[in-house]
Design goal:
The protein has helices spanning about 45-50, 70-75, 90-100, 120-130, 145-150, 165-175, 180-195, 220-235, 270-280, and strands spanning about 30-40, 55-60, 85-90, 105-110, 135-140, 155-160, 200, 205-210, 210-215, 240-245, 285. The chain is of the alpha/beta class. The strands form 2 sheets. The chain has an 8-stranded mixed sheet with strand order 3-1-2-4-5-6-8-7. It is globular.
Length: about 300
């Protein structure tokens, strides 16, 4: 890989130790950098179920939100390699087949867009190992339509975030003023690939698109704009998790000097207004969170 253009950053990096990508990746084709593989019990109930979601946390991230709860693996020291272990396609497929054998409900690929070129081969290797459970693409939505089209036939469930609408906000918090434009096109491509939401007899999502919206402190009206777009462009019964789990991390405060409101949790008023707006817009399959979800307890220990 002499010039990586997998994600919207189009950084042209060689992804070597000397020239890492903006995502932090120093691995070329054929290798995944993985921080942790686990049965994850804290996803949405229709993803984690009772036995957990077979989750792969990939190291690095093309978006790099300042408030990321997984910042220890997504935004490491730029002078150091990403934390984690390198796996070839077949090594990772073997690990995931073992995890599937433990009874997890799905294989959940978290922030894998900077390794997208090898994901179809990974899924083929999984299927050849008789792993038949759904594959979930768990994403920030900051990815290109071209990259997503390469996943057609490999992903059963798309689990995208829609993080920001205001370009000034996404510029300040993720250095991505184009975020909303990119994410909207990406989500429409996911919906094109998986237009029908399908559930198993136990209420687990086995096919389709399920959206996530994290309410940010001081920016609940930005969430209104995202909901307006969802109501206009997507089916009213699309699953939408409206999350109340924003947790400020003390060691990130210095980076967010321009956004002092991000140093606190979301208020009950802000969160309830977002729920009410979604109901007002006719969205019918909403999943909310208790205020206690805003805790570092639910962040995996990397």
């Amino acid at each position: 890989m002499s010039a990586c253009r997998l994600c919207p950053r189009q950084c042209d990096a060689a992804r070597t130790m000397q020239e890492p990508g903006l995502c932090g990746s120093r691995t070329g084709p054929g290798l995944f950098r993985v921080a942790r593989i686990m049965a994850h019990h804290w996803e949405e109930p229709y993803i984690s179920g009772t036995r957990g979601s077979g989750t792969v946390f990939f190291s690095g991230c093309p978006l790099g939100c300042l408030f990321c709860q997984n910042h220890t693996i997504s935004q490491p020291d730029p002078d150091m390699p990403l934390p984690g272990t390198d796996f070839t396609v077949h090594e990772l497929a073997f690990k995931l087949a073992q995890l599937a054998g433990e009874g997890v409900h799905n294989i959940n690929l978290v922030t894998a867009s900077h390794f997208v070129q090898d994901v179809p081969a990974l899924v083929r290797a999984l299927r050849s190992s008789a792993v038949t459970i759904p594959v979930v693409w768990n994403t920030s939505s900051y990815e290109t339509v071209t990259a997503l089209r390469s996943l057609a036939g490999s992903v059963d469930v798309y689990l995208p975030d829609f993080k920001f609408w205001d370009p000034d906000l996404s510029a300040r918090l993720a250095q991505a003023p184009d975020y909303a434009h990119v994410a909207a096109k990406a989500i429409l491509e996911m919906q094109r690939q998986q237009p029908e939401t399908q559930w198993d007899p136990h209420g687990l999502l086995v096919r389709g698109v399920a959206l996530r919206l994290l309410v940010l402190p001081g920016h609940h009206r930005d969430a209104f704009s995202i909901i307006d777009w969802i109501a206009q462009e997507l089916p009213p019964d699309i699953p939408l998790a409206i999350m109340n789990q924003y947790t400020p991390f003390p060691n990130l405060h210095a980076q967010m000097a321009a956004c002092p409101e991000m140093k606190r949790k979301v208020t009950t008023y802000e969160y309830q207004k977002v729920i009410e707006h979604a109901e007002l817009k006719g969205l019918t399959r909403l999943l909310g969170q208790e205020r206690t979800a805003a805790s570092a307890t639910y962040t995996p220990d990397f």
